Amino acid sequence: MAATFERSGDSARELARQVLIHGPISRAELGRRLGLSPASLTRLSKPFLDHGLFLESGEQQGATGRPAKPLDVRVDARRFIGIKLTGESALGVLTDLRATALRRVERELPSHEVDDVVRTVARLVDELRDDAPVSGVGISIGGNVADGRSITRAPFLGWRDVALADLVEAVVGAPVTVENDVTALTIAEQWFGAVRGTESFAVVTIGAGVGYGLVVNDRVVTTPDSGLGLGGHLPLDPTGPMCLEGHRGCSTAMLSIPGICAQLGIALGREVDYDEVLEAARAGHPLAVAITTAAGRALGRMMAYIANIAMVDRIVLSGEGIELWGIVREVAMSALAADRDPEARPVEVHVDDAGFVSWARGAAAVAIQAAFGRMRLPA
Question: Which residue, among 237, 239, 352, has the nearest Cα to 305 in the 3D structure?
Answer without folding.
Answer: 237
